[in-house]
Amino acid sequence: MDASGTPRRRPLAVTAAVAVLYLGGFAQIMLGIVSIFLRYSTEVQAGGLALTVTLFGAGMVLFGLFMIAVASGVARGSRLSRTTASVVVLLALALAFADLIVAADGDWSAVLIQSIVAAAVLLPLWLGAGRRYFAAR
What is the DSSP string of the chain? Predict the structure, then answer.
């Protein structure tokens, strides 16, 4: 609320960043569910990796739920959630770079997509109206 008692409106750019975080969380949950179902694949069964694949999928689902919780905190104006979202997005970008180096296949698509996501989340949260929105909280 501002000095007159009226609630402060969330800037549109921050709302867009929250939407990107929610979409990322939901996508992570869906990928986790798909991973859990992959445990029934013949290749996974033959390799004896069913438990590993299931645990990996469950971890993805939990991480997706964590991202949704962070997005909800950002939507409410939580500074801790803004910082957490920033750290997670930057870690994902670092992992995309690490994957590019380790895979050595020259496929920059993951780095490009993660860079766009990072810009869509970080810029609205830390610059302009978003900075002022969180500073007033």
Answer: --TTSPPPPPPHHHHHHHHHHHHHHHHHHHHHHHHHHGGGSHHHHHHT-HHHHHHHHHHHHHHHHHHHHHHHHHHHT-HHHHHHHHHHHHHHHHHHHHHHHHH-S---HHHHHHHHHHHHHHHHHHSHHHHHHHHT-
Measured between alpha carbons, how far is 87 from 58 in angstroms, rounded to an integer?
Answer: 22
User: Whole-prediction pTM value?
Assistant: 0.85
User: In Å, what is the CA distance from 45 to each residue of 38, 53, 96, 134?
Assistant: 9, 10, 29, 49
The residue written with tokens 């997670």 in the block is 88
**In angstroms, what CA-CA distances link 61 with 10, 50, 73, 117, 128?**
29, 17, 19, 20, 33
Tens digit of each residue's pLDDT (9 = 90 or more) over 77-125: 999 999 999 999 999 999 989 988 988 888 899 899 999 999 999 999 9
CB atoms within 10 A of CB 23: 14
